[in-house]
């Protein structure tokens, strides 16, 4: 199970390295940029997630003997390149948007600076992580808005790859979720874990009453009982008989959730279980959550639509060379000119300006290192870039549990500073426009 | 990086185990079934993939001291359950559809038999793997049909989670693809790896000519040159000048691929490079591939739409208890009755019948172990179930590279035996109907 992230890579990163080591360009200084040309159709903003995981992967981004033998045996690269790879270590610098930050088309979400060789090898992994994690965080953020103040919990692990499930749990919390059903995510990232029982638990017992009694004996009266295996009304009656009015909660996982929640709430109240909470789960997405706002629900479990990005399972982020050293040793802005895929050359700064406390424009400034160093943003513009890696040194404040908590809080604040249109579920333009200045 | 698949699990699997160990039901014999209630809207069939990966995970499905400490510290389970978990080992049996087999609504894709305790813990992981891998294989199969005899290659790793990328490469090959750009997938599963260069390779050089010359020096004349960084016509001219007419291939990654391929083919032929192959890549899906059938293209690189299941990034597979031992020691069929989620109780057999060599009906037979043992299928019915695990013993023929090759070949044959409607890209009903018999 122990595999290097340095092989989580498209082969062409290695063949390019091989050719560039032979002709000397592998040592040219470069700036690569991660950005997206567009948000998913109709989305108002995206939420950055995954950068902390990139830093984790960077710490292990080297090849062991078996990996090197594989690259040699398959003739992916030459002998000389194998030598170079034995000492693979990223010594460059990375800056970018915070996790939990909103992004828009052309936002320079990550900028990676180093030699062509070391930067190129990172492309696939950086994109895999940012594209998936940001897709989940972006969907999560819309769901949390639609759920208003009610907590949303990730229960989607079973509907995506087993490792995606772990990344999705982390990204969901960055996007505003409160916790996850996924234990490995809880272990790796210190997230709150939730969950009590499934239908099979009721079915393996001889009747619902003995199942409920067993669960309460093991997990206490504050547990949540699943009440829709047979007949919901019967189950709620049995639940309160077994647990008493101190019953923690009930969960409904099928049917018309709003009307069922209403009936169950009334029944619970009539039985004196006025503090018993109602959780609903069943193919929820942001639209379903918005429709449930007036139903007496206390919390949501969201699965499939969370981990698949609610219709946008990936972002369209790309990793493009924007500046590189030329034969003369001078840094030069570069960009491809492919039809519909042209990119903005040069390294970037990024700021967000505000009017009456609300964001109005994303400012992306392109220029040479000297120009950008001398650039003076207008008063009140927020600098959107933080330094993640400085000449190979990772800033650990962006890793681990605390970074996730910070990102969770940051997202809520940053979203509150966008025009309220951002929270609309109607399809439309990005919430703010992006202004690109080439110095 | 070394984490146990036994924690790639929703917390409720463990809390259910905990309660069932305390009340004794954890030792009840059970049969769980994986199936889907429906295919993605309009799809004609699905392709099973992932089962081999489940077997791999099963070999490592146990908890180390750190995992046990986590479960204890978080109070997920009681002390007694921790003891039980120290010896966690799946001793049950698993049968199911082959990888590469077609599935339909209610096909019993996997059946897991053992004690409630050991079977329950597998739920999340089994579903994560089958739901994602089968989504990718199902999309891949449609793409391969649409591409006719032209090879399709997976280049989607950057658009999905970094581990999904590895699983997607494997599933793509099961679904009919020929290879992948992903090196870790190539290493782990012995897949063919492909890839030469990206736009940044051209951009890091001072001009396109020196980039092409460098690539040919390193990778030989048989390499594929990317020709759309600046001007395609210029690039093709330069490519043949540098490599000569023996140039292996060119790749086009932007614009109107059909008309560009036609122009490039004519240009290559006029330059004498009649054997130079054309690869196209750029947000391809099965519809785009079908539209390219008359264009002079030699192979396809497919990315985003492959790894995101081409609009269906997950299958709707569920893992349901269908039979269990009662208090009297007798096995009893069970099923929940939740609205819109009712399931067919009982363990199952599955056969496919044929008329004039074409599949016409999927037969799912439910009954007791004795009834199924005595069941006689009609002549010519194909038994769809194979034994993956027998009382804890994994049949290794379903793991590793050879199993993938077998599944790749099996899919092509099984698809050819479905009515040709199966290969239609128009939305419609499943290619064959499923007949459920309860004995």
From TrEMBL, chains A, B:
Record-given protein name: Nicotinate phosphoribosyltransferase
UniProt PTM: Transiently phosphorylated on a His residue during the reaction cycle. Phosphorylation strongly increases the affinity for substrates and increases the rate of nicotinate D-ribonucleotide production. Dephosphorylation regenerates the low-affinity form of the enzyme, leading to product release.
Recorded GO MF terms: glycosyltransferase activity; nicotinate phosphoribosyltransferase activity
A single BP term in Gene Ontology: NAD+ biosynthetic process via the salvage pathway
Keyword Phosphoprotein belongs to the record: yes
Native source organism of the sequence: Bifidobacterium leontopitheci
Function description: Catalyzes the first step in the biosynthesis of NAD from nicotinic acid, the ATP-dependent synthesis of beta-nicotinate D-ribonucleotide from nicotinate and 5-phospho-D-ribose 1-phosphate.
EC code(s) of this entry: 6.3.4.21
Similarity field: Belongs to the NAPRTase family.
Keywords on record: Glycosyltransferase, Ligase, Phosphoprotein, Pyridine nucleotide biosynthesis, Transferase
One Pfam match: NAPRTase
Gene Ontology cellular component list: cytosol
InterPro entries linked: Aldolase_TIM, N/Namide_PRibTrfase, NAPRTase_N, Nic_PRibTrfase-Fam, Nic_PRibTrfase_pncB, Nicotinate_pribotase-like_C
Top-level class of the enzyme under EC nomenclature: ligase
Pathway: Cofactor biosynthesis; NAD(+) biosynthesis; nicotinate D-ribonucleotide from nicotinate: step 1/1
Every Nicotinate/nicotinamide phosphoribosyltransferase domain range: 152-338
Residues covered by the Nicotinate phosphoribosyltransferase N-terminal domain: 7-131
Lineage of origin: Bacteria, Bacillati, Actinomycetota, Actinomycetes, Bifidobacteriales
């Amino acid at each position: 199970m122990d595999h290097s992230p340095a092989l989580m890579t498209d082969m062409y990163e290695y063949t390019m390295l091989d050719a560039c080591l032979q002709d000397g360009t592998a040592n040219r200084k470069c700036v690569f940029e991660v950005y997206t040309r567009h948000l998913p159709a109709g989305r108002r903003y995206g939420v950055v997630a995954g950068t902390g995981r990139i830093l984790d992967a960077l710490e292990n981004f080297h090849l062991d003997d078996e990996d090197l033998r594989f690259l040699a045996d398959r003739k992916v690269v030459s002998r000389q390149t194998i030598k170079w790879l034995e000492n693979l270590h990223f010594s460059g610098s990375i800056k970018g948007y915070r996790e939990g930050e909103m992004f828009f088309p052309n936002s320079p979400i990550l900028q990676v600076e180093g030699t062509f060789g070391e930067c190129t090898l990172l492309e696939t992994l950086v994109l895999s992580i940012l594209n998936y994690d940001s897709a989940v965080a972006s969907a999560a953020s819309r769901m949390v808005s639609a759920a208003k103040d009610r907590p949303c919990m990730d229960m989607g692990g079973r509907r995506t790859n087993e490792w995606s499930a772990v990344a999705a749990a982390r990204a969901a919390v960055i996007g505003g979720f409160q916790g996850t059903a996924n234990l490995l995510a809880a272990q790796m990232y210190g997230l709150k874990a939730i969950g009590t029982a499934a239908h099979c638990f009721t079915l393996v017992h001889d009747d619902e009453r003995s199942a409920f009694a067993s669960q309460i004996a093991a997990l206490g009266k504050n547990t949540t009982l699943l009440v829709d295996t047979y007949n919901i009304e019967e189950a709620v009656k049995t639940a309160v008989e077994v647990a008493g009015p101190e019953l923690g909660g009930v969960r409904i996982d099928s049917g018309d959730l709003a009307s069922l929640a209403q009936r169950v709430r009334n029944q619970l109240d009539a039985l004196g279980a006025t503090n018993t909470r109602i959780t609903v789960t069943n193919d929820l997405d942001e639209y379903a959550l918005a429709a449930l706002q007036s139903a007496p629900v206390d919390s949501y479990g969201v699965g499939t639509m969370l981990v698949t990005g609610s219709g946008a399972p990936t972002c369209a982020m790309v990793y493009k060379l924007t500046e590189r050293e030329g034969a003369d040793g001078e840094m030069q802005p570069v960009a491809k000119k492919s039809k519909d895929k042209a990119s903005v050359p040069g390294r970037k700064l990024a700021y967000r300006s505000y009017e009456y406390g609300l964001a109005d424009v994303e400012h992306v400034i392109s220029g040479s290192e000297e120009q950008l160093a001398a650039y003076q943003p207008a008063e009140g513009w927020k600098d959107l870039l933080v330094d993640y890696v400085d000449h190979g040194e990772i800033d650990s404040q962006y890793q681990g549990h605390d970074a996730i908590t910070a990102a969770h809080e940051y997202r809520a604040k940053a979203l509150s500073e966008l025009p309220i249109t951002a929270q609309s579920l109607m399809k439309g333009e990005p919430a703010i426009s992006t202004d690109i200045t080439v110095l």
